[in-house]
Amino acid sequence: MGASGALGRVNYEEIGLMVGLEIHRQLDTFKLFSPVPSELTEKVDFTFERRLRPTMSELGEIDPAALEEFKKGKKYVYEGNYELSDLVYMDEEPPRGPDREALEAALQIAYLLKATPVDEVHFMRKIVIDGSNVSGFQRTAIIAMNGKVDTPWGSVGIPTICLEEDACRIVERREKEVIYRIDRLGIPLVEISTTPDIHHPEQAKVVAKYIGDALRATKKVKRGLGTIRQDLNVSIRGGARVEIKGVQELDMIPLIIEREVERQLNLLKIRDELRERGVKPNDIREEFYDVTEIFRDTGSKIIARTLKKGGKVLAIKLPKFRGLIGKEIQPGRRLGTEMADRAKKYVKGIFHIDELPNYGIREEEVEAVVERLGLGKEDAFVLVASEEETAKKALREVLKRAREAIEGVPEETRRALPDGNTQYMRPLPGKARMYPETDIPPIFISPEEKEMIKSSLPELPQERVERYVREYKIDKSLAETLVNDERDELFEELVEKGVKPSLVASVLVVVLKGLKKEVPIENITDNHIREAFELYLDGKIAKEAFEEIFKELAKRPEKSAAQVAEEKGLTLLSEEEVERIIEEVIQANIEVIKAKGMGAMGMIMGRAMAKLRGRADGKLVSSLVRKKIQELS
Question: Which residue ranges form the domains of the chain, and what is each CATH number?
């Protein structure tokens, strides 16, 4: 099956594309292991510090990702708030719970995804020592197994659905410490993993949307930025499994997969070229050359600053790599970019032969380095300017990445970038990161509880859309927007109060979206909307007033709909007042009416509405204008 996109036409079946999804979504309940509200705050009442170290699993293994974080030698500072955190989240008290509402929501999601819940929930500890969990581990439990999502490309399995606690959020990164806020720590998360049976970028989007719909159907998930995280596991034949974290937008999923396919295909081409040139991993030796003297009078500001501080310029030799370090592997990113990403934990950047002369480094300096290292015409060099030991650490990362280039595509965890590209984060986590949680006893889920949840499952969004079209006779695109924007509950509430479904849908979708470019509509709350519709039902405003009221509320959300209607003169006039204003318009245009008769209807109606829009019902105005013109014709 082919597709067009960043790669032109690619036969994904031919290249053996395999994609798996991991979707994490916050639940809107209390925190998972103590009865603390799951909210965020900027108020800080206290701070404390931790240093974290990796430990061996029960099999005597150490997780490589945990080990790499430990090597950074960072201190972690935590900010807390008394209302939104307690001793559990400072790792000073054993966990309680888990929260029953969160557990029930997770079971609802499991049934919606055709999964089979477990009989007993057992929490495990997953080692995480980047500081995002105060304890050095995250608590997680399998809730259900063996679900599935049907797509036009075939079924995709959901082997596990887990319930786990969210991590702290980063406030600031410094050179040797990271500042975290613990308000997010412990917010319940549902983690849904699929099998790698996704074989097309668009199929991944379909699966992610279906899972997202099941999550939203429960009405127990949080909304907004940061409440959902989507990770992709991508591989192709001959490549490697790469985990891509932090995919925020559904529409970006196909592009990110296409770009990762492009990256892996290009890395395989580089591997093949290196092998053709006869390079072996053992040829990449850890030999550091001090080339500081060559750059004593350099025009490079970066190098000059380093030398002024007493630093050095060190170089390494990469045999047969010339022309390949600068080879583009994703739009705007090269193999040299990947090397620089690895070195970033120690230095801000590297220099390599394929991009020089540049950045103030002159041709004669490049030639001097080539001569000093004894490079052949196919050989390359990489430079780092820093304190000597730091420079060596950075260059060791470059050497490691160069050896991996000879092998092909390294397994690793990468972060999604806004343009669809990805960037190295850390090695792929190993299997030696899970061990039993001894502080939480197993939780038995009775057959009766399972049956109760299964028998009262909510509608899936697509089912709700179809019902709205069928029951309320509204346009399908309006119904889809209501459901996708999660305005469906408010829609049903207002219809139940007696507002026409077509009017509610039109205001919630057309009017609000129409204001999006003019004002910050995110300031308009559900309560604002309820107030405005109550005014309409009480006969105090016309439907034409909604737009003006919401426009003002977006700018001044502290106001009520009633206050805005009063201030803006949008409250309905009596029929006598409406008739008086129409009479004024008629008298001002009497000659035109006598000449054109009913042909003047449009003009008179326009001039009347200019004075009455938002203050009178359009049907009433039309009826009175027609009557007046007929009397004069």
Answer: 18-275 (no CATH), 279-409 (3.30.1360.30), 575-632 (1.10.10)
